[in-house]
Amino acid sequence: MDVEGRELEALEQMLKSGSLKNVQQFGLEIHLFKAKNKSTYKRFTKILHQLRSNLGLDLVAYNANNCAAKLLDPTRTYYSLHDLLFFKPFVPQ
Fold it and tell me: Tell me: the pLDDT tens digits for 34-70?
């Protein structure tokens, strides 16, 4: 999923609507360069928790996206784009 900086809003809506309930895996590119305050990171942490606790989706891979690398950070210190992979383990019933 790549929604160019609207990831938190999109995920919050998907969690609210239940549209992720049958999803077994998905990838997400997140744009953290737009996170200008702690509340954004708190929202992101809450979403990660909901994906895990409500839907059983585990974060199984995380990589800095080298497409823009550190170019979007004014100090050129941090990667601004990150690729995340979520997976729901199969649990026999």
Answer: 666 788 888 889 999 999 999 999 999 999 888 877 8
Residues in Cβ contact with 57 at an 8 Å cutoff, skipping those fewer than 6 apart: 20, 23, 25, 26, 51, 86, 87, 88
The amino acid at residue 5 is G
Q: Which CATH number among 3.30.1490, 3.90.1150, 3.15.20, 3.40.50 corresponds to the domain 7-87? A: 3.90.1150
Return the structure tokens found at 28.
């997400």
Q: How far apart are CA 32 and CA 5, in angstroms?
A: 8
Instruction: Compute the distance between CA of residue 72 and CA of residue 32 in angstroms, rounded to an integer.
Output: 10
7 by Cβ neighbours in 10 Å (0-12 / 13-18 / 19+) ranks as buried
Residue-range domain boundaries for the chain? 7-87
Give pTM, 2 decimals: 0.80
For 41, the token pair is 């990171």
